[in-house]
Amino acid sequence: MKLFLVLLFLSAALFLAYVRLAPSDPERWHIDPSTANDPGDAGYLLNLGPTFALEPAELLERIDVIAMQWPRTRRLAGSADEGRITYVTRTKWIGFPDYTTVAVEVSDGVSAPVILARLRFGGGDLGVNKTRVDAWITQLVSDVQPLDQ
Question: What is the four-CA torsion angle of 4, 16, 93, 136, rounded to 10 degrees?
Answer without folding.
Answer: -140
